[in-house]
Design a protein that fits this description.
Layout lengths: L7 E2 L4 E4 L9 E2 L11 E10 L5 E7 L9 E8 L5 E12 L4 E6 L7 E10 L4
Antiparallel strand pairs: 1-9, 2-9, 3-8, 4-7, 4-9, 5-6, 5-8
């Protein structure tokens, strides 16, 4: 009987200064070698805000242009009383093209530094 073990992608961390308006162009999520990550399950993410207070919405799309791309994943991370929190998905959300990400702050988190790492699991090989 065959055994299947999950293979996770070593994604490049994101570090941004947050804005309270979503970018029109999302940033491509890449692996540690700078390559795209098509053929994955989005399993969640961990985020870190410079100081507690505020909420951050993270969206993952199937293309860069947020106005025409399909939103594959969206989560609002609540930093009201903490500086680090995470979200996980079971089962994961399939993204067959290269995923792209935006990060948007509410008025309290606006202007703060934010870092996150996206959890991706491989489901297909290009």
């Amino acid at each position: 009987m065959a055994r299947f073990l999950p293979v996770y992608v070593n994604t490049t961390p994101f570090e941004v200064t947050l804005s309270n308006s979503e970018a029109g162009t999302a940033t491509k999520i890449t692996d540690g070698a700078g390559k795209g990550c098509a053929g994955v399950l989005v399993r969640g993410l961990v985020g870190n805000l410079a100081s507690s207070g505020g909420k951050v919405t993270v969206n993952i799309y199937n293309a860069a242009a947020t106005a025409t791309a399909v939103q594959q994943y969206s989560v609002e991370l609540d930093f009201t009383s903490t500086t680090e929190t995470s979200n996980t998905q079971e089962p994961g959300i399939p993204v067959l093209s290269d995923p792209h990400i935006t990060m948007t702050a509410d008025s309290t988190a606006n202007g703060k530094d934010f870092a996150c790492i996206v959890y991706l699991q491989k489901i297909a090989v290009d």
